Amino acid sequence: xxxxxxxxxxxxxxxDPDLAxxxxxxxxxxxxxxxxxxxxxxxxxxxxxxxxxxxxxxFNTTDFPTVVTSILKHGEIQLxxxxxxxxxxxxxxxxxxxxxxxxxxxxTKLPHxxxxxxxxxxxxxxxxxxxxxxxxxxNEVLSKIQPxxxxxxxxxxxxxxxxxEFAGRANAEVRKIAxxxxxxxxxxxxxxxxxxPAGMQADIYESxxxxxxxxxEVKIVKEYKI
Length: 226
Prior knowledge:
Layout: E1 2-6, E2 9-13, H1 17-24, H2 31-34, E3 41-43, E4 48-49, H3 52-59, H4 64-74, E5 76-77, H5 81-102, E6 103-104, H6 114-123, H7 134-145, E7 152-163, H8 164-177, E8 180-185, E9 189-197, H9 201-211, E10 217-225
Helix pairs in contact: 5-6, 5-7
């Protein structure tokens, strides 16, 4: 079941929780496949349907797909104990991967492997919300594991110079992995300044070298903590 409580009213729909969560993550799943019943309830257990006037008050519409979509995106999705455990574990791994990619050990300047981050999360007894985006929970997790492992999220600006024959492809690919803060097109090269997580330097340098057959020039121009 998915439930949304707002303005003193409850709205409930009967759903497949796995599909409902996948829908919330952005997967293109039809509402018909998610719902177990084509009804919007005020109390599903009692079979009490939501009143149209209350739908208008809260959602400004009685359109069934619109209301259901809002409940799925913003409401509480009830999970079984096993489903919750599985989704929490998946979210933990997602958060650990973000911290591993974007953070690093300030002493060694190397990233922490995801498993080391997961171990620290376990030791710190970090609570994870399976419904919140992983990125929204990163700072909270960091504050709890930093007493256990030295870690900081640092970013750097790098200047790259790509020979003009590789510039078109490099420009398109680079924008998929890092913000371009400034750029300049010359007759013989594309020059750009990118902002990247410090812990991803090696991966990004490897990608740039593959894109340019090893002919990219890279220089760090700024380092800062966030």
